[in-house]
Amino acid sequence: xxxxxxxxxxxxxxxxxxxxxxxxxxxxxxxxxxxxxxxxxxxxxxxxxxxxxxxxxxxxxxxxxxxxxxxxxxxxxxxxxxxxxxxxxxxxxxxxxxxxxxxxxxxxxxxxxxxxxxxxxxxxxxxxxxxxxxxxxxxxxxxxxxxxxxxxxxxxxxxxxxxxxxxxxxxxxxxxxxxxxxxxxxxxxxxxxxxxxxxxxxxxxxxxxxxxxxx
Length: 215
Fold this sequence. Notes:
alpha+beta, two-stranded antiparallel sheet, metal ion binding, metalloprotease, Cytochrome Bc1 Complex, Chain A, domain 1, metal-binding, 2 domains, three-stranded antiparallel beta sheet
């Protein structure tokens, strides 16, 4: 480590610091508030698959990385147990799989907006009823909105989703994750240095730290 530190100092210390703040594009609000965005698009896939994707453009969520509200919502939407969206759609023989979330990449999350998408893999019968499938998804999101978040939250009488449980699962996955390639790890840390506070460089992209229902 001493040798590596010496090399880094020799190689990079001559790079000038211009003292400029990190650029922000927060003033460019609502980039998707256009007629083109509020539409249904049909795309012919390369392989034989039916997929329905619903996308929302939300205010920037980068600053809430310690809360991870979109991660919390994606757990609720992606739940597969009794009372879930997918469970209902499977009983109708309309869907095979469902996924919701934010990729936390530059396109899906930045200082201008955050994207939240829900994708449903449809059966042939589900494709015929994709309007009804979309309606069910919106109904479920509306229910979540009305109930509001909670540390201990029960939906549809049997769907028991715990914020604390999500926090523990993410912590376990972090502590017992497989060792990654050193180059990839360093690259990831360098990206985290642009996004998180110093004390969260190692954990900011994976752990849930704070429960804030208002967020």
